[in-house]
Design goal:
CATH topology of the largest domain: Immunoglobulin-like
Oligomer: single chain
Number of strands: 14
Number of helices: 8
Strand order of the largest sheet: 5-4-8-2-1-10-13-12
CATH architecture of the largest domain: Sandwich
Shape: globular
Number of domains: 2
Structural class: alpha+beta
Radius of gyration: 26 Å
Distance between the termini: 98 Å
Largest sheet: 8 strands, mixed
């Protein structure tokens, strides 16, 4: 009897270890089984405000399990991401969350910890903004965007805006042309239902464009031509006349500062100007016009991303700067 017990102890220990390994799932596998993407919209805006593709993920995850989920959200993004702008939960406004990026051979994985547990049957909405796929200066420009599904996905929608002043715009697969949005961009869309985990969906885009300036400055020319633009949209008309005057005044003042900061003379600042103001613009005066304008445009965009100004206000300021530039 003792001999049987002695010779079978190792077998019992090995079985116990194996049962534990089988019983404890990995965190990623658990998340993939408990969560499902009810909807994901991938918006691609090539050359919007940088010579790259601005990608925006807007989605809604649902807990399809029977237990609350308190882990991390993991989403696949391309491995050519150059800058992450926003990772936020959007249940009530925008809650910016810390995130991590893991590099893989064929993709990157961006993840963040849920701020609150996700109860069974409930949903969690989010948004990501990042730049990827740097575009060259050649007139013929193209890029390919691969989405590798992190979760089972009920509905995937592609929204692509063609750059301003681009032509021969082609997508593969072909997306439906929806017309022109209030900002003057041509919009293309395609929807696909029922994606499995790790299923790959690809969109290729090709177009010609001779200009190198960001598309965001395009509305100025449209407004001057008297065409239907942002100014004709219901959202724009909803501004009160007082707010409109204040916004235009702010944009005009900002345009003056851009002009002032980019003057090439090196004269000393007037003694009545404060030391801080003087120092700031002495530093700015050695920068090129493009560098200073890009810096200020970046600060304005930061206000937009932080929900301190609306998209309509942002467009209005950019338009006013464009008119004063000319």
């Amino acid at each position: 009897m003792r001999r049987w017990q002695r010779t079978n102890y190792p077998v019992l220990i090995i079985c116990a270890i194996l049962s534990l390994l089988i019983w404890v799932p990995t965190a990623n596998a658990t998340g993939q089984k408990l969560l499902e993407l009810e909807e994901l919209v991938i918006s691609l805006w090539p050359e919007y405000d940088k010579p790259a593709v601005l990608a925006i993920y807007s989605g809604e995850l649902k807990n399809i399990g029977s237990e609350p989920y308190e882990g991390r959200i993991k989403l696949n993004i391309p491995n050519q991401v150059t800058q992450v702008q926003v990772v936020a939960e959007t249940e009530a406004g925008k809650l910016y969350v810390p995130y991590e990026i893991s590099e893989r051979e064929d993709k990157n994985v961006i993840s963040w910890q849920l701020s609150n547990e996700l109860l069974p049957g409930k949903t969690h909405s989010f948004t990501l903004e990042f730049y990827c796929k740097p575009l060259g200066e050649q007139q013929e420009r193209e890029f390919q965007f691969d989405y590798i599904a992190s979760y089972k996905t009920e509905k995937l929608t592609w929204d692509i805006k063609s750059p301003y002043d681009s032509y021969n715009f082609v997508t593969i697969p072909e997306l439906e042309a929806l017309g022109t949005d209030p900002g003057g961009f041509n919009v293309y869309r395609k929807t696909k239902n029922k994606l499995d985990i790790n299923q790959v969906e690809t969109v290729s885009v090709q177009y010609y464009r001779e200009k190198e300036e960001p598309s965001i400055v395009r509305a100025t020319a449209i407004i001057d031509d008297g065409q239907s633009t942002l100014a004709d949209s219901p959202a724009f008309r909803s501004h009160s006349s007082t707010a409109l005057v204040m916004l235009i005044g702010f944009a005009s003042m900002l345009s003056f500062f851009i002009f002032y900061a980019t003057r090439t003379n090196k004269e000393e600042q007037d003694g009545e100007i404060s030391a801080d103001f003087s120092s700031e613009y002495r530093d700015s005066s050695i920068k090129s016009n493009e560098e200073v304008e890009a810096e200020i445009m970046g600060k304005i965009r930061k206000l937009l991303l932080e929900d301190k100004i609306s998209e309509e206000t942002y467009q209005l300021i950019i338009n006013e700067i464009g008119k004063n530039r000319r």
